Amino acid sequence: MQYRREITRILGSLSLLTLTAMMSACASKSDEMSMIHFKFDQANLDSQARQTAKLNAEEMKKNQSAKMIIEGHCDERGTNEYNIALGEKRAKVVKDYMKDLGISSRRLETKSWGEERPLASGNSEKIFSKNRRAEFVALESDKNSN
Fold first, then answer.
1. Is the Cβ–Cβ distance between 107 and 60 less than 8 Å?
2. Which residue segments constitute the domains of the chain, with CATH numbers given?
3. Which of 5, 23, 27, 128 has the fewest CB atoms within 10 Å of its CB?
């Protein structure tokens, strides 16, 4: 939350929602990995989520040295403890599906942020749905491994 306030302070008139969208677009474009979204209080992959995971797996197959952290996120509803657990379930279900698609578990880690890193701010279902997600974050490759 603090980093968002600092960014907003620095960039002045741009709204937090605009900044968040810009950061998301840059991350998605540079990493070629798409976010996976979830329904309220769910950690299962629907057909759209499975399709997105397949595309992400194809990107990882193109770059055999790529390693990712799959970060699970939730909307603000529920307790912190509940959302941390739900975020972990979301990250784990994505990791398990990626393994089913042929990506080695050695290349995937998971982390839950619960509700701590919302993509968007507000109290509408549209905003909440943006925050219920799994994101792929690139890990730096180990330069010493052969």
1. yes
2. 32-139 (3.30.1330.60)
3. 5
